[in-house]
Amino acid sequence: MEDKKILFSAIQPSGILTIGNYLGAIKNFKKLQDDYNSIFSLADLHTLTVRQDPAVLRKNTYELAALYLACGIDVEKSILFAQSHVSAHAELAWILNTFCYPGELSRMTQFKDKSRKHEDNINMGLMDYPVLMAADILLYQTELVPIGADQKQHLELARDLAIRFNNIYGDVFKVPEGYIGKSAARVMSLADPTKKMSKSDANLNAFISMDDDKDTIIRKFKRAVTDSDNKIIVSPEKPGISNLLTIYCAFTEKSFEQAEQEFDGKGYGDFKIAVGQAVADVVDPIREEKNKILADKAYLDSVLNMGAEMAERLAYRTLSKVYKKVGLVPRKRV
Ligand code: TYM
Q1: Is 292 a catalytic residue?
Q2: Distance of alpha carbon 245 from its chain centroid, rounded?
Q3: Strands (E), the chain
Q4: I need a labelling partner for 195 at 20 to 30 A (CA). Which of 54, 85, 297, 330 fits?
Q5: Mutate to test the pocket of ligand 1, among 6, 8, 21 (most ligand atoms within 8 A of CB)
Q6: pLDDT-based confidence at 200, cuts 50/70/90?
C-alpha cells in the first residue's frame, strides 16, 4: 500500500441501501479513495444483532458488494471485504469489551431506538454493537472514518476506547477522526421528515432504495410529505421541503441558492418531479451496473477473497500487538 493515511468504513448488508446510505456514505467513499489507503467492509456480523433470514442475508451481502463496485469503489485502489471473513474483528471486539462499560453502551441512541423497534429481541449483540464497530476501525490504524451523522456517537466511543487502551499500554491504536459530509449527512424520511431515512422502515414510501426504478422514484417523491405554504426554500420551519432540496442539491451538485432560484415561483408538484428526475438520473445507471456485476458471483467471490486476504494481513498486525500488550502468550508453532 502507498504511504497514505488509512480510511475505513463499513455498511451493513441488512437490506437494499437507500439514497441516505448513498449520499451519507458511499458517495464520499468514492471521492476519498484516491487520497487515502481505503478499506471498505460489509458489516455482516453487525446485521446479526437483528434476526436475519439466512438466505436473504446472503443475497443482501452480494447485493452490497456489487453496489459498492457499481458506485465506483475500485478494488485496484481500495480493499473491499466481508467483516466475517476476517476473524480479527470479533477477536479485538472481545478485548475491547473488557475496556468498555455497560453504561456507555446502554445510553447509545441507536441501541435505544433499536430496542424499541425490536422489543422481542434485545440481545447482548445489539448493545455491544458499537464495540464491534470500534474493533473494525481500530484494527487498521484508521485515521479517517467517513460516516453519516447517525454514526457519530459510535465513532466517539471508538475514539474513547482507543485513548483508554493507549493510556494503559502505550500508543497501540491511532485515534480516528470522523468525516461527516457537509450536506446530506442525515437524509430524512419522505413520510416523516423528522425521522432519519432508513432501509428498515416498514413504510416503503418513506425511503428511496437504490433498487427503485425511475417511475417508482418519481411516484415516491410525489407522495413525499411537504409543508403547508408553497415556498421552495431551506428553513427549519419547512423540514419536508428542506429535505427534498438537500436531496436535489446532493444529486445535482447544485447549491441551495441555485436550487431556490431555479424553483422560485414554481409549485410543489413540479418541484417534486424535478427531484425524482435528478435522483433517477444517478440511481438508474448505478442499478443497471450493479445488476450486471451481481450476475457474476464468481467474480464477486474473487473480489471478496482478495479483499479478505489483504485486510487480514493488516488486521493481524494490530491484533498481535494488542494480545502481546495485554499479556497473552503467543502461540509457538513447533
Ligand atoms: P448503516 O449500514 O446503518 O449505514 C451505512 C452508512 O450510511 C449512513 N446513513 C445515512 N447517511 C445519511 N442519511 C441517512 N438517512 C443515512 N442512513 C444511514 C450511515 O451513517 C453509515 O455511514 N454501524 C454502521 C456500519 C459500520 C461501520 C463500521 C461504519 C460497522 N462498522 C466501522 C463505519 C466504521 C451502520 O450500521 O451503518
Answers
A1: no
A2: 22
A3: 6-11, 37-42, 79-82, 144-146, 177-179
A4: 54
A5: 21
A6: confident
Cβ count near 294 (within 10 Å): 18
Protein residue with its CA nearest to atom 25 in ligand 1: 11
Structurally, at CATH architecture level, domain 204-291 sits in: Orthogonal Bundle (1.10)
- Give domain limits for the chain: 6-184+297-326, 204-291
Residues 158-179 have pLDDT tens digits of: 999 999 999 999 999 999 999 9
The pairing of beta strand 79-82 with beta strand 37-42: parallel
* Catalytic-residue membership of 59: no
Pocket test for ligand 1, best of 9, 11, 179, 196 (most atoms within 8 A of CB): 11
Predicted confidence at residue 166, as pLDDT, reads 98
Q: Is 332 an annotated catalytic residue?
A: no
H or E, element range at 40? strand 37-42
Read off the amino acid at residue 322. Answer: V
Q: How confident is the model at residue 1 (pLDDT cuts 50, 70, 90)?
A: low
Fold of 6-184+297-326: Rossmann fold (3.40.50)
Per the prediction, the chain carries an average pLDDT of 96
Pocket lining: 11 vs ligand 1, CB cutoff 6 Å:
yes
* Residue pLDDT, tens place only, 207-263: 999 999 999 999 999 999 998 888 999 999 999 999 999 999 999 999 999 999 999
Q: Does residue 146 register a pLDDT over 80?
A: yes
Which one is catalytic: 59, 152, 195, 199? 199
Report how far ligand 1's centroid is from the alpha carbon of 132 (Å): 14
